[in-house]
Amino acid sequence: MNLEFTPEEIEFRKEVRAFIEENYPKELVGTGTREDLSREQFLAWHKILGKKGWSVPAWPEKYGGTGWTSTQKYIWGEENARMDAIMPLPFGVSMVGPVIYTFGNEEQKAKHLPGIRSGDVWWCQGYSEPGAGSDLASVKTTAVRDGDHYVINGQKTWTTLAQHADWGFFLCRTDPNAKAQEGISFILVDMKTPGIEVRPIKLIDGTHEVNETWLTDVRVPVENLVGEENKGWTYAKFLLAHERSGIAGVARSKRGIERLRDIATQETVDGTPLIETPEFARKISQLEIDLTALEFTELRTLASEAAGKGPGPESSILKVKGTEVQQRLTELTLEAVNHYGAPYAYGMEATGNGAGIGPDYADFAAETYFNMRKTSIYGGSNEIQRNIITKMILGL
Amino acid sequence: MDFNFTEEQGMLRDSLAKMIRDQYDFESRRKVVASAEGWRKDMWMQFAELGLMMAPFSEEDGGLGGGPIDAMVVMEEFGKGLVVEPYVPSVVCGGGFIKRGTDAQKEEYLTGIMSGETIFAFAYAEPRGRYNLADLETTAKKDGEGFVINGHKAVVIGAPWATHLIVTARTSGDRRDKNGVTVFVVEKSAPGISTRDYPTVDGRRASEVYFENVAVGAEAVIGEVDNGLPLIELVSDEAIAALCAEACGAMKVAHEMTVEYSRQRKQFGTPIGKFQVLQHRMVDMFMEYEQSVSMTYMATLKLGDDEVTRKKAASAAKVRIGQGGRFVGQQSIQIHGGMGMTDELAVGHYFKRLTMIDSEFGNVDHHLKRYTELSAADVPAAAE
């Protein structure tokens, strides 16, 4: 056991830092914590990384991965968080990509992996349904074989950023008579196919981040089935474990704490910087300690992954603790800005009233706090994660 | 000891609840919040006709002879309906100051407050003052018989709708001195006052209010020159009690909605309300709500006590309501799952209001500190 970085790793950090500083789009600096970015803003950094060959570090090298060690990947995450970089979205890179290279056939790999790497193709996730949230295996959307096509009918929900999506991966029921988990298939769908309608869902912070996706007689070629028919649940679970391991967000939370410290230095209570008041100083310390515990838990998980174990049920710890830290961070940020949490930044833009009431750092403080309540709900709610640990680790 | 409401208070509650049910359903509120005005003047006038504005004032002031308990009843119902109209700024704060003013001031403003025609906002917060009511950079300099006000007041809730402002300003001393603070009443249209209006995250409207050489006469002073802080603290404690009542109303509805949702929502073939982990959490929410009601009653009943008792009670209530409101709000969203995150469902709007109540008139940390300091100073009395 050893916590020191090797000279090579220190050199690596210098290299990636220089690359990020030189290549990260200047116009995106400072926008990384916003929720209302355009398609171009979301993809800009992804495309630059795609050209450099760094957009999918975690993938096997033969599919375009960088071959970095887990420490290098950790450094990479930290350096990007330092810039508040808008990272490649997870739907292609961390979700469907690994499913395709692990379970897909050669045609699917050739067709889809390049677009995911380059950032040219935007993916969305068709998992949840109005009646299938925590109980994902109860999906009702059907895919019925008709010659060399599947005909898909149903309604998906919480399809994040589907308004921009070129392709989607959908869980569909292909055997209505099988038990819940058996009889689901994992199907890739071109979002331009007739019969797909994406309807916006407005969230409590005022953003349009998720959608309802309605599928009516959507004809999809059978070659878009990934792996075997009726085995989709296996792939879905594989994907969810991958999703969870990225969900800890350690580097980003570290950056968030730096930002919070900065705010708490500028805010004063009776002339004393907020950060020097015992109440608030302790809250930040507590958060840092929680984040450290999370960080070293993640590092241990990464080390065991590097030793050949895939992400297992331990990733549920990262999801629960990671989201708790993220939520607490936004809670303290809102607390720090006091009265100036109240102005509704999105509302002001909508009414043409301009942004920027109060100090700049107060913009979006409340909105982000509201928005981050989603993190303990999505990707398998934190209650579900505890169920997974109960079952898979405690054996109860 | 008596925790019962009077017959009049019961009737006030029932008729207000009915009015909100009939005319302030969630969809109507949504439209109003999104409109250019952001509130309904006609609704406000109906509230006035119902007697809400008169209820807490004494009969000699032309009111119905009620008091803080009447305001509590009103604000609990406002909390249940997420009513955005400015009862706390205008009636509790504006009325709270004016009824302690001169006869001439009462004469000039009280009738209007009670009829709903005169609408006050309370400009107390400042960009750098945080929750210290005496931390004022706004100044009022003596000029002949009157004063000239300069400064910037932050996040003045209800100011876009107000006809008048209560303004706190420094007339002498240093920035945070307890002495040297004076309260003024000014017309919002007075020369030199400009505002920047905006919506708030919880569906209300507020303004940044700028004073540039705003000249007021001696008759604009409420209470004593240089010794306004005790009055500001008193009215702020009354506002805290009213906000706590609003939070109780909001918590009650958020909790009820969550329990109902857990009955309807099925996963794994069973209503999620059957899962013990969620049952216990909803019980915790319920206990937070019940304790919040208790603290609100306690703080409201002690508003007329001596200064230390009153302040400690208001701080204690604000702390519990800040904590309870956060827990109930957050868990309402969590148990609703993704649906709780949508703008479409009312529950998220209750969560947002509960969140923002903590930052009005001092948050949990501020009041824990105030309570602690008051307790430390109060030791001899406690030892009696």
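qc> Residues 175 and 351 of chain B are 36 Å apart (CA to CA).
qc> done
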